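SUBJECT: A protein chain and its fold
Encoding: whole-number codes for local backbone shapes
RECORD BEGINS BELOW THIS LINE
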Amino acid sequence: MNSRRTFIKNAGMAAAGALLFPSFAHAFAKVKPVGLQLYTLREVIGKDPKGVIEKIAKAGYKEVETYGYSAKGGYFGMDAKAFKGLLDANGLKAPSGHFGLDSFLKDGNQDELKIAIEGANGLKMEFLTIPWMGESLRSSLDDYKKVSERLNQAAEICKKSGLKLAYHNHDFEFKKYDGKTGYEVMLAETDKNLVKFEMDLYWVVRSGNDPIAFFNKYPGRFPMWHVKDMDKANHTINTEVGTGTIDFKSFFKHAKQAGLKYAIVEQENFSKDPFISIKQSFDYVSRELV
């Protein structure tokens, strides 16, 4: 009984503190884990995957997003089982991975899709994410309609394997054809219940668009975000999250509307030690955003 009274008393104090001090409430709020796209550390991870993964975990990250899986090379020279063991040993999960599917998007050949599904399931991912598509696949609105049809097909195949499909943008999707963008076609032509989008906030802002406008028009379609900042002096490069020009706080106010589930840091350019950079970004995102 004493422990029950103590629990009730402490809970009451916490509630009172939350009312009086909003920051107190934040301390008790459930904070989303912060992820890192491993492409950020592409210069070093292939040389020492074990050491790099250990440093990522030490920086505070609880999730990673993979890239570059192949049937022969696996993940950075490790097969899926071994890499999963490495992540587990460091308290990390991989809810998503980037898998190129140009062949499938072009002609429907399922070979590379099957390999991608195998790699994703090997790490028990939730999302199989397409990070890019070749220029030959995206030169008109009709091309984007064909791609959208393929995305619906891939999503159905992924669903049968226990996975969800997502598409990650750059800036080329925002090129206009007769006043309409490829991104708009993809959002409109894909099944909202099957095909999700990983919004790269940096590329949306750099293309001159407003992420919030998409959250408003297509609620729930953006369960993953790439949290990548824009350098103040040179908008073509990245910098540590919170030190650049992007107003992430305004976007995170719409996280629920967007359907945000995974916030994933990415940085492609560095002016300091990459491990210092990813720690700095983690600290900002975990403290100020999620």
Q: What stands out?
A: Residues 176 and 182 are 7 Å apart (CA to CA). The first strand starts at residue 34 and ends at 37. The radius of gyration is 20 Å.
